[in-house]
Amino acid sequence: MSNESPVTEKILNYMKEKYSPIIAPIAVLKACSIISSKFPKYPRLNIMCIAPSRQFKTQTSNEMQNIFPKTFYINTGSDFTIHGFKKRYGKKINKKCIMINDGTLLFTSKSQKGKDRLINALAELLADGIYRYSDNFRSWDLTGNISCIMNITLESYMRNKQIFSESTLTERFITVFYMIPMHEQIKYAEKKEEKLKITYGKKLAKITESPIQNADKYKKELIKIATEASILSSRSMNGTIDEINAMAKAHANLNGRNNYCKDDMQFVSSILPYLTDLTAPNENKIIAAYIEGKSVMEICKSLNFSATSYVYKVLNQAKIRGIIQDKEEAKRK
Predict the structure, then answer these.
(1) Hey, what CATH class is 6-274 in?
(2) Quick count: other Cβ atoms within 10 Å of Cβ 99?
(3) Global pTM?
(4) What is the pLDDT of residues 253-269, one digit of tens each?
């Protein structure tokens, strides 16, 4: 990073020294999500942070909350219902980042009906800024111009992955995965306690109201990054480009700028290695090979697969999600 991004540099150095180099970019990403809650309109940046238990997911969230005033976020804890949320915070939430510390506990503590309602409500709020509830006795709307950060264990993500996908919840998030090697976890125990000395006030909120002045200059580069991110995360291109744009804008704002520089592109690119789903690490390889023009048999051979069924399944899902096109259909167009 250059001297144009001093805040990012401070966070990265602090997180590398105190925790692990692996989670340093994740911490900056969470700061960007909190900032994006102040954007006057969508897209905003939503993060689903997925890692094994006890690998500093909570710590990175807490460290970033310490930087920002409480007007930037709502810490929901780890056990709430959408009815309870509305009762506590009202029917309208304006420009807040919803911090879900432990998605694993949140979803395991709910009945299936309660879990489905909460997942659907989050998906609708993040997509449209409004959730409409109705039953035989009452109806109400919950509106929210929000961003969201959710921490969840790898095991819980695997258990709920199908539900998240069917409800389109994962389409509303950048899902980032990581695992910290054992030797780094041991090294953490030997480090001294430190505090990150960065605070923000009202000035930051004013910056986010301004459009990025030189956005056109970096449009092609951001589209290129988003195309790669779409393949790596197995998400639609339209949703991915929105998230990538929000990430770049939030990173510029984090460092007190309303213009892009190379640092913003560098940071967004640094997130790409975290986008591969650790529960299905071959999906993006299959999609990338298909886009390159390889046949199913060629893909199987290059990845040492003995059966074609899994490859066909991945490609069919990618077509349904709009990540790739059928080759014959693409020729006709």
Answers:
(1) alpha beta
(2) 23
(3) 0.89
(4) 999 999 999 999 999 99
